[in-house]
Structure formats: C-alpha cells, structure tokens
C-alpha cells in the first residue's frame, strides 16, 4: 500500500488538446497502479478474483474524470491517482455484485465470464466486498504526503457516493422498478443515485485533490451532475441502437427486462436531444468555473455523449 | 450524518468496576447512535433492510472494545462513538453476506429470519454493501470536531481490517477450508483474519481516538491480538458444549459442515487451556501498557473467555 506511482501530465503544455493521447497516458498510470495495489497474493484465491474483476477491462471513465478534474485544479498527483483507482474499485465491485444471479444474473462482462461464473458466487461476493474496503484503504495511505484533510475529504465523498444515498440506493430503486412505470423525475432520481453519484463523486474527488475556490467547486459539481445524467441517457440510447458486439454487453436488455429507460419514456429523438442539452449544461458549467484549463473535462463530456459503446 | 450523540463515562469515577453497568450505559449510546445514523428513509426499502440487519441484536462486543480502549487513552468521545458504530456496521454487513445462500445459507440470526430471508437476496446484498459504505462515512464527518488525522487513521485501520488482508481474506480461507485438514498455524491464520482482524482493529481504533504513546499502543495491539484469538477458540468450544437456544444460533454447525476448529484440532480440554492462556496474554499486555485505567478492557477480555454464548 506504500507503493508510489507517478503520473505527470504531458498534455498540459500542448497547445491543442488530444483526448486520445491524454487518455492513453493516464490510463497507463491507472492500470499500472491498479495492478500494483490489488495484491495477487490475497488469501485463498481472493486476490485472483479481485484482479480478474478489475484489471484488463472497462473504459475507466471514472478514473479519467478524477484525473481531469484534479488537473483542472492543479491537484496532488498522488492523491488524484489514488482517488482515480478507488473510484474504479467501487465501480468494479458494484458490477461484480450486480452480475450475480440474485441481481442481474449476467454471465458475460467485457467479453469475459463474470466473476461468479469464473470463481463461484461466494468468492464473487467476497471479492466485491474486499474491493470496496480496498477503495477506502487506497485513500488513506501513511507516508504518501497526502494531507490528512484531503484523505478525509476523499473518503467522505466516496462513502456518500457509494452508499444508501448514492449508488447502492440507486440500485435498490432499480431493483424495485422492474415492470413499474416511472415518470421522468423518478427515472432521473434513480439514475442520479445509481450511476450519477459515482460519476459526480469522481469529479468532486479530483477537485478535492487541489484547492479550487467555492465557485469553481460549485461549477465542477454542476458539470458532474449534468455529465452523470448524460451518461445514463446515452446508455439507454445505445441499448436500443447498437448491437451487443459494439456494446461489449447484451444489447436490448433493458427493454427485454421491462426496465424503464429514457428511451422508453421520451422516445429516441427526445432522449437524444436531452443528452445534447445535458452536454450543453456540462460545458457551460466548465466555462463558468473560472478554471484556466478544463480541456480534458470538456473532451470527456463530449466523448460521453458522442460515444458508440 | 451531522447528528451528535454524547456518551460520557460514569464508571470513570467509580472505585470498583462494574462491567454490567458500564456496558449497559455504553450500549445505550451505541444503540441510539446506530439508530440515528442508519436512516430509515434510504430508497426502496434499503434503509429498512439495513436497520433490520443492525438494530436490536448482537452482543456489540466490538463497539464495547472501541469505547473501552478509547477511555483507556482518554480518547475523543465523539470519535470513539463513531468508530464503535463503524466497526459494528462492518461486522453486521459481514453477517448479512455470510448468511446468504451462496455462503453459509443461514435462515436464522439472533432469533430472527436472516436479512435475505426477510428482504430477498438482492436487497440483502445491497444492504450489506451500503452498510460497509456507511461505516466509512461515519468516520469522516464534517464539523464534528474530530481532527483530520484521527479521521484518516480510523479509516485506515478499518479498511485494512475489513479487506483482503483482514476479514474478507479470512472468509476466503474459511470457504476454501471446508473438509480440509488445517494445522494449528493455518487455523490461527484463518481466524486471525476472519474474526481477529476486526476485533484487533476495534481496540486499535479506540486507541487512535486518543494519544497513547508507542508503548501503550503496542501493548493494546498485543491485547487485541490475544483477545481476537481467544474469542474464536471460545466460539469453537461453545459450538460443541452449548445448545442452539443458549447460543442463539445453530450449535454443532462447524462439526456438521466439516469445518476445522480449535476443538477438532486440539480437543476440548486443550482448547479450553489455550483460551485461558490467551486471556493471560491479554491481561499481561494491559498490565504492561502503562495506562492508568484499563479495567473495562480487562473485564471485557474476561467476559470473552468466560462467556456461555
């Protein structure tokens, strides 16, 4: 847990912004750090299950948001990298538990058998539990030069976003909503918690690694909220417009399981317009933040709305 | 999360020590705080499942250890109460997940249907996940007057004790050990992680609420380690010597499921002697701690070894 992984920012000096290059560099840091921090030798195969659940897969949107927000406020790189990995561990554990037979009963994830298929349900349950604990452990290292108030703030943001008033609460609403007609406010509330809370926390945690003023923090919070909702609207659109191969997961699943979605509620065209509107809100928040370089955050928001998988 | 619950210490001025009175007073504080901090209105029944899993039950040994250790080092009462509740939430979530069909498949706990029987497996899984997040959230309140370095230290101790190198790792070894002949070192390692880590963390977290010197901290760590092992040895003894009604859970379960225990390894008489020896180690550590009042810790260790359920 004392390992240091440095992650400088080559794009900061570039005149124009290349999201691809920026992402590749930062993803390399994140992958290396995750691999270092998820010990393979955890007892009785638990480490193997944890690594399987996290490594070699995923778009890593949340870590990239943490790192982009941290760079926008000149945050501590070590704190940002730890926060980036912690958020990804929470996301990864939620997928492991979500895929289990008592939840979504998914057998494939990122083109591989899901953790419970590969390691058994009990080990999947434990691996998810251990990943959540590890997420918090990463945020409170001794001797890494991260001020105590930053460590505490990062834990606070992550715990709130992961718990009953965040991700877990959103999943509970999701469970209860199968076959139920939600209105737009209820659907928004579900997604605000289920996926929005952790996306928004990613931005807030990045911001907590530096010392943005209150106005900048409020602007980044608005950015995170809009981006979190936009992510889900686009997810719902892709579920009906893309095939499974492009998505890397089962397409048409929401409709098949009679889950309410933005598309079922608004129709495809209005859902698309809503996503664009949310992108506009996110970009407007950045423009009003007073921060000098928000190009990575801007490019990530555009990528979220215009992605094809 | 901003609620304050005060918990003064009436026993500190008493000449002799009455563990019963001390425990009753402190348990009242803990119950009240837990009830206040586990919000009933978490979405879609999640709050109800979380409260069901935690409230009105359990010996609360871990919270009492936190509070006793904190008092021994004149720790901050608010920090200690939060730490006490956080440790109990981790313990409670581990029971919820442990009871699930894919793990121990238990239908009764503390005389009530287990959480998954009462609320369904998916809700039980989510409730456990949300309880873990809440445990960390309790440790990092804003505006509660707990110094940042104490908040960070408490998170660090709890995360390590709960994760792959602690409780979750011990559970993974336990899973893998059914029907396997373990030697004493392997059995000790399993229990050191599965139950010992959280018991030891309870003592260490209590100590982290004050400012014990290094020698006192080391002594408390030895106390916690000995007590953690003693707890498990006694658990194994009670599993074969008590009936289910006395235990409040299914007796003889370890033997029936062919799990290795201290009794199956050492025999009843040597297991009993081993528990007494560990109690001696715990009390010797307290005596060497240099702390002026360790009566509650002492009485709790005696209670752990001499309990009948």
UniProtKB/TrEMBL annotation, chains A, B:
A Gene Ontology biological process term: terpenoid biosynthetic process
A Pfam family per the record: polyprenyl_synt
Signal peptide start and end residues: none
Record's keyword terms, sorted: Isoprene biosynthesis, Magnesium, Metal-binding, Transferase
Family annotation (CDD domains): Trans_IPPS_HT
Keyword Metal-binding: yes
GO molecular function, one term: prenyltransferase activity
CC cofactor: Mg(2+)
Top-level taxon in the UniProt lineage: Bacteria
InterPro entries linked: Isoprenoid_synthase_dom_sf, Polyprenyl_synt, Polyprenyl_synt_CS, Prenyl_diphosphate_synthase
SUPFAM superfamilies associated with the record: Terpenoid synthases
A GO term from the CC aspect: cytoplasm
Family: Belongs to the FPP/GGPP synthase family.
Protein name: Farnesyl diphosphate synthase
UniProt source species: Paenacidovorax caeni
């Amino acid at each position: 847990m004392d390992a240091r992984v440095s992650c400088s920012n080559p794009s900061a000096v570039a005149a124009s912004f290349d999201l691809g290059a920026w992402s590749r560099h930062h993803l390399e840091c994140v992958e290396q750090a995750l691999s270092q921090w998820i010990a393979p030798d955890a007892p009785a195969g638990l480490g193997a299950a944890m690594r399987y659940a996290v490594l070699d897969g995923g778009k890593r949107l949340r870590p990239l948001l943490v790192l982009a927000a941290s760079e926008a406020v000149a945050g501590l790189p070590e704190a940002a990298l730890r926060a980036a990995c912690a958020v990804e561990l929470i996301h990864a554990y939620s997928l492991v538990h979500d895929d289990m037979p008592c939840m979504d009963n998914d057998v494939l994830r990122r083109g591989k058998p899901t953790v419970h298929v590969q390691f058994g349900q009990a080990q999947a349950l434990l691996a998810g539990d251990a990943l959540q604990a590890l997420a918090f452990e990463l945020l409170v290292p001794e001797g890494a030069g991260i001020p105590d108030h930053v460590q505490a703030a990062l834990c606070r943001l992550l715990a709130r976003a992961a718990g009953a008033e965040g991700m877990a609460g959103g999943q509970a609403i999701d469970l209860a909503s199968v076959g139920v007609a939600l209105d737009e406010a209820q659907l928004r509330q579900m997604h605000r918690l289920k996926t929005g809370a952790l996306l928004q926390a990613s931005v807030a945690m990045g911001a907590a690694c530096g010392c943005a003023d209150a106005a900048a923090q409020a602007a980044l919070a608005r950015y995170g909220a809009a981006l979190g909702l936009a992510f889900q609207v686009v997810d719902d659109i892709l579920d009906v417009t893309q095939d499974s191969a492009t998505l890397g997961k089962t397409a048409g699943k929401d409709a098949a399981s009679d889950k309410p979605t933005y598309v079922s509620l608004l129709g495809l065209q209005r859902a698309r317009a809503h996503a664009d509107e949310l992108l506009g809100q996110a970009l407007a928040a950045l423009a009003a933040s007073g921060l000098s370089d928000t190009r990575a955050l801007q490019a990530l928001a555009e990528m979220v709305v215009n992605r094809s998988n």
